[in-house]
Amino acid sequence: MFIFRFENVRTGDFAMLGAKNNVRVDGIIQPFDDEKAIDIHRDSPELFDIAKRLTTTFLSKFGDIIRTVDLRPLLASTAASFISSDSIYGEIARGVELETIYDETTWSFSDAMLSAYNANLVSEDFLANVTLHSRVLDTLISDTKDSRFSYFALKVLQKSYLLKDGVDLLERPQFMWMRTAVQIHGSDILNVEKSYCMMSSMRFIPGSPILSNSGSKLPGLSSCYLLPADTDPGTIFDTLQKVSAITLNGGGIGLGIQHLPAKGSIVNGRLRTGIVPIIKLLDASLNVIDQEPGKRPGAMTLYIEPWHAEILSFVRMKRLTGPDDERAKNIFFALWTNDLFMQRVDENSQWSLFCPSTASTLISTFGKDFEKEYRRLEASGKAYSTIPARDLWREIILCQIESGGPSILFKDAINRTSNQQNLGVITQGNLCTEIVQYANRQETAVSPIASIVLPSFVTRERRIDYDRLGDTSVESGAQNHRAIGIGIQGLGDAFAMMGLPFDSAEAAQINVTISETIYFNAVDESCNLINVFGTYPTFDKAPASEGWLQPDYYTSARTSGRFNWDALRSKLKKGICNSLLTAYMPTADTSQLTGYSEGFEPITSMIVTREILTGQIIVIPTHLISLLEDLELWSEALRDRIVADNGSIQRIQEIPKHIRAIYKTSWEIDPETIVLMAADRAPYICQAQSMNIFLSSPSIETLSRLIFLGWKRQLKTGIYLLKTSSSFTSATYL
Known about the structure:
CATH class of the domain at 224-443: Alpha Beta
Strand order of the largest sheet: 18-9-10-13-14-17-24
Largest sheet: 7 strands, mixed
Number of helices: 28
Strand content: 5-15%
Radius of gyration: 27 Å
CATH topology of the domain at 224-443: Anaerobic Ribonucleotide-triphosphate Reductase Large Chain
Number of strands: 26
CATH architecture of the domain at 224-443: Alpha-Beta Barrel
Structural class: alpha/beta
Low-confidence stretches: 1-20, 23-30, 32-43, 477-481, 728-734
């Protein structure tokens, strides 16, 4: 007999599931007791019907024989298959899955870490710290907070984040948060507790590599790495070695290749083969670097400037057509675009291409200095070739329409507003275009990232709690004393939970105030931290030493009036712990844990398809279901209509118009809104934003107009990826 207790659903209720099917118990085949198929509180007809439906479906999944170890996974998966019918099934699925996890693991965090150490999963120093503080750390663990995870999030955790010894699970979900908090703060138990409480309450979440690697011998607390490629044929394999070391830990890489000489050039007496063979080498390397099972694979974006002599070859390597030996399938591409190129495209002028071996000064200049040097090189006849600027632009846009990339970042806006101007010219971004830092061949730029989960700050009054948001900005930034990236996730869900259309005027203002609150509090706390860590080493000659804040670089910065910026400028002049603080990243991985929309995007679809043990199921935002249930509109028939309309509710007239306005998808919102909202919050972002553009049927004209709009509004990232309806998929296997 298998007993399932509804402990996380209705206190005291339980169901006993049985039939004439057989189970294997300790190697002995036994029948279910068919006289006790269901035993549940009969005074709850609704719950009885739910249990009856679940039992019937559950038993239909059995073969002739099933192991008892498979019972609960099948029951949880069966319950999950009904999630879009009634939210209670989600609670059942989560409850059963948690029972499975708890049965397999110890209640003690310190004991779990000892087992992890014996399995060579955590370091000796980490274990020693945990053992020293075991009593308090074990006491701080609160398994009740696991109710914040959905069934699907629990499956993702087991697959990619929780420590395992082979197939044996060692961690409970709360242990991951505690392991990360201990890795960040060490023996500072007060801050360990603060971080644990905020992460376990889903107020902020560090990047995936931080969650996966905390406590290990190579903890890898940075998610993003930026470096230029070696240019000498004899040292190019040094770059491969660096790439291998970073990707083994799941890090994402931004690699600048604009230094590489063009094909046919002669450098130091050697005929150079150009960028294509090197890109193919880097592309192939990602296939041979082994990854731990379930962990995020390493990935790389290559950056090049549009004046490079082989820019056309670079762009065409991401086209979907062409010879395989001229295409790169594993690597992402990005253009490090200067203002002069954009101007010449706008004016329909000619554009000169150069080999870096004769035009290296173009790499180390920006703004007016770049323009002066570019014109000097043109006048001196050193151009490799000259083409119409719009011809190159057309190739870029066509490639984006075909493959989603290359990304476009604006070199001048990035360098003009960077607090790292005193270090040198920034020449590349990171994998996902939100991290933009100075790097050279001697020093790889690194950045840990964390996202603030905005729906956690929506109050019952449907407002943002800016005070708690400010406190969380402080804690999420207390991870490192160099450059960091604090971002957001769930903006689309937060607006929906507040009853606001994403494209409304009120949402536009809240968008700015959120970013302003995060930035102000992060800077203020970083100034406070100099009493602990001191100022970062190169502060003295940085713009911050003169009191420059991000809004000071923008004439159009909007403020809420909530903060004393003059006082902060005075405080800043005395020192700051972090050179850079905010960066709005994509949150595709961690959004699977929270269940909210990625980053600062609208909700992409009202349906997400999941593949689970018992088949394919549909997931719909719980706040939409609750809203429609309150209006007595929700039904399986309505759900089926949403599915038939590919996740849109706009043509369902029974749903009130104001609700349809709140729940527009990213495909139904004017893409200019996305660009303009990014521009509005830009004055409060030290680094950049991974801004996707959504176009169901993109054209060269429309996409060009949107990218130019971002450039004219001083965005640093013109586009991360183009998302088209044909390229979009919401299916995930768990």
